[in-house]
Amino acid sequence: MSRRIPRLPSWLPxxxxxxxxxxxxxLAALLPARGTAADVAGGASTGAVALLFFLYGARxxxxxxxxxxxxxxxxLTVLAYTFVVFPLLGLTSGGLxxxxxxxxxxxxxxxxxxxxxxxxxxxxxxxxxxxxVPAAICAGSFSSLAGIFVTPLLAALLLGSAGxxxxxxxxxxxxxxxxxxxxxxxxxxxxxxxxxxxxxKVLGLVDRGSILLVxxxxxxxxxxAGVWHxxxxxxxxxxxxxxxxxxxLMLTLSWYGGRRLxxxxxxxxxxxxxxxxxxLAAGLPMAGVIFGADASLAVLPLMLFHQMQLMVCAVVAKRxxxxxxxxxxxxxxxxxxxxxxxxxxxxxVAGSR
Length: 353
Hints:
The chain has helices at about 15-30, 35-60, 60-70, 70-90, 105-110, 120-130, 135-160, 170-200, 200-225, 235-260, 265-275, 280-290, 295-320, 345-350. With about 350 residues, it is mostly helical.
């Protein structure tokens, strides 16, 4: 981590990658893919999603994941916030239709509640706040792994026809585009893991480029279908307000819930940041598979929530860094070494997922 990744000035509260996403959306609005170009972009997007999940599988160390199970109470708590509390709050958004949110935006709002937690930014903010960094690493990894299986199942259960239903065709798409590449990556990790580690920076660009392609394809389809007339400034403001309430609730519940469960300060910080955030990198490809041609509006709430969580959590982490020290919790296997800043946490925030 000694080599810094170029990023925007610190005074500009916008993630550089979010700007790239916004530029991709603008490109799709001005020059949407049509006809043969749309077919080519769709095929490339499908291949990009498969490549992403292959890389996810190849990067995940099974040994490290098993070692992280020592702190199982914390990981179960994060998974409960990610895949139980978040979806329950997301379901309440149904009461906002049609007066506040359109059905399509509400489906996207619910979908963002189903995707797994982030890895990089959870680690970075936990480090800045002097929390349990190893726990944040494992919790984010477990959440991402569980999300590959849990998110499509929850989407089929809770989104119904808005997510395309749970037909044999949608199940086959999920298996072929998400699960099969992930499992292939795990099986081939022994041979390709070293290569991926040596070329981490280049493959990071591949990750981001693949997601930008998915976004361009989804928003192009939305433009061609004429769905964007539904997103008025009033609707957009209402969506942002609903997401602000959602994020505030999750930050509060994860912090005070961790205290009620008897976790120490360092563990509660890891729970708060891993349990209150959502992964853009995992969610966007999944949305393309689950929603198909309707993915353009479905991914908008997730993209907005991603930027909001980065800005808010940066402030929260800074405040937490001034908290008085507490002794480590008795069930923390890492002990006092579990907390402490990384060498350059800001680098990780710039590449957050």
